[in-house]
Amino acid sequence: xxxxxxVISYLKAKPLNTLLNxxxxxxxxxxxxxxxxxxxxxxxxxxxxTKGIDLVVGAKGSPLQLILCNVFHIDFPTGNINLKExxxxxxxxxxxxxxxxxxxxxxxxxxxxxxxxxxxxxxQAELATGxxxxxxxxxxxxxxxxxxxxxxxxxxxxxAHGLSKEGHAHDENPFVVKGVLKKTNSVIDNLILTNVSSIxxxxxxxDSTDISKNSIAPxxxxxxxxxxxxxxxxxxxxxxxxxxxxxxxxxEITSLLIKYRNPIAAIQLPRYIxxxxxxxxxSPAFEAARLFSILGxxxxxxxxxxxxxxxISALSIFIALYNSLKERQYDLAIMxxxxxxxxxxxxxxxxxxVMLTVLGSLLGLALGHLVLFxxxxxxxxxxKTGMSAFVxxxxxxxxxxxxxxxxxxxxxxxxxxxxxxxIHKVLxxx
Length: 430
Fold this sequence. Notes:
The protein has 430 residues and is of the alpha+beta class. The chain has helices at 3-13, 15-50, 63-70, 83-90, 143-149, 196-202, 218-221, 225-232, 265-276, 284-327, 329-337, 342-378, 380-383, 394-419, 423-429; strands at residues 55-59, 81-82, 95-107, 110-115, 127-130, 138-141, 156-157, 160-161, 175-181, 192-195, 252-253, 255-260, 279-282. The radius of gyration is 32 Å and the shape is elongated.
């Protein structure tokens, strides 16, 4: 009988104790694995979703809410900002690029975003099918949105006010799907994109001027077509909404996503906006760090709980080996009398502890990934996060190696006792 077979026989002899030790360690490892997967992927998602956005400008209120709403699209807007004032900021010497966002409506809890096609460039999003919108009430749908809502090119739908299905439906202005984006594993996968004027249109009263016509000054609509075209040459079009005239103080958007022109802008521009305008500026990098500090308290508490489970498991393995060694003294003495060396007894006890920790660690790692897989498969909201259970990090290898070291340490004292077994004393006492 070799050592491995012997150790397996010892573990089978007390199945309940063996199972308890394995489960205690597996639970601790599973909790740490879940936190590890969640923490790493959350940081990656935040980094990917804020790439190319140096500053978010919106209505005054909570800076964190401004970021959560306009970058991650998981909160409500702080309000609207005036289009004329936003245009002035977009032309500022420290602004390299400004992308407008107009929010307010959704479809089946998926947010509809009025913006410019350059918004998709932030996430390297490309069309899988169809084309970009060319008129009002045409949309391009993110990959996850299209998959979960079964939307395809040519489909139509009515938006609802707010972010819930119970919001007021805009039945009079249905949207038509013109394109579907490729999967990017970013927030754009969960959005429905259209132009800004479409958002304005669905919120206008029936008797108001049509937005497509309002892309020029209302006074020109009352004039003849020839005169209108002649005067239109002298109108400046909006830098944010190209189909609309510049300087319209009656229109509003939700926010601006700004890219700095140079490093000096990071110092001067937020201060200028917050102190000299009616708008608010918030840094995605700063607010993301603040968000992690808030979440960190809960993560640290759960991590501490997991380590307590692992320590309890280690203590349980040590006690089990220590007690079993007392029961096996006669067996060990017989093995010694039949030619087994002290080293062999030492290795056998070590191997038992290592096997317990290996089984517990493997089960814990598998359980952690399984829990995340079930969570992302059964809960619809979690599918929007882009979390994956089939991602592995090097820290998991460190966790597994650490558990092996723990098994060796737990087995040291029982192993030394096995090594020092006095066969004459044991056999004489029996």
